[in-house]
Amino acid sequence: MPSILLVDDDAAQLTILQRILKREGYTVATVGDSKAALAAIEEKMFDLVISDMWMSSRFEGRALLREIKRNDPDLPVLIMTAFAELNDAVNLVAHEGAFYYLEKPIQIDVLKREVQHALQTRGAFSSQSNTDSDETIPDIRFNNIIGESEQMQHLFKNMSRIIHRGVTQVLITGETGTGKSLIARALHKHGARGEHPFVSINCGAIPDTLIESELFGHEKGAFTDAVTEKKGLFEVANHGVLFLDEIGDMPIQTQSKLLHVLEEREIRRIGGTQNMKVDVCVLAATNKNLIEAVRDNVFREDLYFRLNVIPLHVPPLRERPGDIPPLVNFLIQKFSTEYAGAPPKQFTPQAMSVLRRYQWPGNIRQLENYLRRIFVLSENEVIDKEELPPEILDTSLPVTDVEFDILEAGVSLEEIIKEYVCSALTKTNGQQIKAAQLLGISRRKLQHRMQKYGLHSQDFKNNTTDAVGAL
Ligand SMILES: Nc1ncnc2c1ncn2[C@@H]1O[C@H](COP(=O)(O)OP(=O)(O)OP(=O)(O)O)[C@@H](O)[C@H]1O
Ligand SMILES: [Mg+2]
What we know:
about 475 residues; alpha/beta; Rossmann fold; Helicase, Ruva Protein, domain 3; 4 domains; 5-stranded parallel sheet; 20 helices; disordered C terminus; binds adenosine-5'-triphosphate; binds magnesium ion
């Protein structure tokens, strides 16, 4: 039985909420301020905290939220808020990890729904859930998705959890070409719905006027062109998976209808009078920044929060250069089956290191396209760096795994590059040709960078070589 901690300094409200939630079958503890809440959390494991945003005591809702997120990032926190504080509440959800906000006066059906949703996430992502510990979740091997990096391993773990728990709503985010569509298909294939349809729609590619009839279907005569009745994709995907690709491009009026479907799990055809229950797992994907879209009023905030309950973020390739060699091998292997009879190919370590260093703005799709080109066009079995396309060779950004660690700590890219240039110059006693070789860039590029950062070769002469560990 899931247990909930209610935090509010309004005793009357506490009693009412407690009664409602108990009737729903939850175990409910109540406390009157944040200090007591922290003490309670310390003592006992809860699955959900529902807290008022402002309380009269010194230590209010926001601070409580931060404290909880620091100790147990997986524990969902629902914030109760008055209309006047709505803006703050939205910020807490967008930036501080609150799960959702409940606007006062609290509506009972909304409360029940949000509590259910919140507990679902706890179930899906918690490693401490008392019903089902992480050890019991088998790691699924996604054979066609390559990723040895820690980031991808983490992603696979979350995918396994989503599949294991039968989660029916996920938002997949990531830059173009990172593998979002591939991941959506894998979630379908390996899940309990694998035998049922996988239906995919690109929300950006369908005219605004048609998207609703595509999604929800229409009755005969619903509009001029509706000469026969038509099933919508939600119906077609029943018991299976509906993949809403490029969800950021969905017209705003359709967004409110989608929100309704996600909340009620029922649809109504255009021109229809009956609602129909649908059992569909909705996977949505986007390469857009939805928070910005919300800010620009092109994406509904409530839909964003609803979708983002279970997010899967696919990191760009440049943040995981360690995945490049296995990806290259995998793709080359794939091409040799695709182009039967073509000789196998191999990259020299130098060529591989250039591939690792490149930023790949188009991510794996771009890598795949380049490799395919080389595979098809090159006559050599061993590919050296000279055969790589000029734009890949001409990179002035030496990216390595080490650099990524620094990046994460919030240092700007420019600073890191400067750091690298300095280290190389220090190591080579200010000899530009050697330093450029070390960095894998041309001497001209090096000089350009030195000029930019105001560095002079003579300043690096006769220095000790201690600072080169990072190289
Ligand atoms: N980890 C991976 N291992 C192997 N192949 C991958 C991986 N990630 C992506 N790919 C391949 O890269 C190509 C692009 O992937 P996909 O179409 O899934 O990207 P996307 O994130 O959906 O892009 P977009 O935002 O443009 O829709 C596909 O051919 C896919 O098979
Ligand atoms: Mg895609």
